[in-house]
Specification:
The chain has 4 helices and 2 strands, in the order H-H-H-H-E-E. By secondary structure, the chain is mainly α. Helix 1 crosses helix 2 (20-32), helix 1 runs parallel beside helix 3 (34-51) and helix 2 (20-32) packs across helix 3 (34-51). It is elongated. InterPro entries: Anti_sigma_zinc_sf, Znf_put.
Length: 133
């Protein structure tokens, strides 16, 4: 069989019409023929595109569907504050000092006093409460 015959078998294989012996012979031929491998790759790609093409864009119907159901769209969430304010828990590491380090004590990156006992100075997670400003 020549390349044209194998290409017909490859096409039939894509349609599910090639027999087992024909498919095996075509696979053997593909192992040694770059031209037929390129044909098979192109045919496979074309078959996939024909079956799974890009979807056409559709309009957003969310507002119309919600209106038809008598449901209003949820209000957008309020924006988060840019910087949280730290506040120690009552009896916590900063003794309830509203997140302020005592005078003369350098605060850490999380705002705890350097004398804080929560472990954040040693890399442990801070146990102070974080409250949005």
């Amino acid at each position: 069989m020549d390349c044209q015959g194998y290409r017909e078998v490859l096409s039939a294989r894509l349609d599910g019409e090639a027999g087992d012996d024909e498919r095996a012979a075509a696979e053997d031929h593909l192992a040694g023929c770059a031209s037929c491998r390129a044909f098979a790759d192109g045919a496979d790609r074309l078959g996939r595109l024909a079956r799974v093409g890009p979807a056409d864009p559709l309009p957003d119907l969310t507002d119309r569907v919600l209106a038809a159901l008598g449901v209003s769209a949820p209000a957008p969430a309020p924006p988060l504050p840019a910087v949280p304010r730290l506040s120690c828990l009552d009896g916590g590491c900063c003794s309830g000092a509203a997140g302020r380090a005592p005078v003369g004590v350098v605060p850490s990156a999380c705002g705890c006093a350097s004398t804080c006992g929560c472990g954040c100075q040693q890399g442990a997670p801070c146990r102070c409460a974080v409250r949005a400003a």
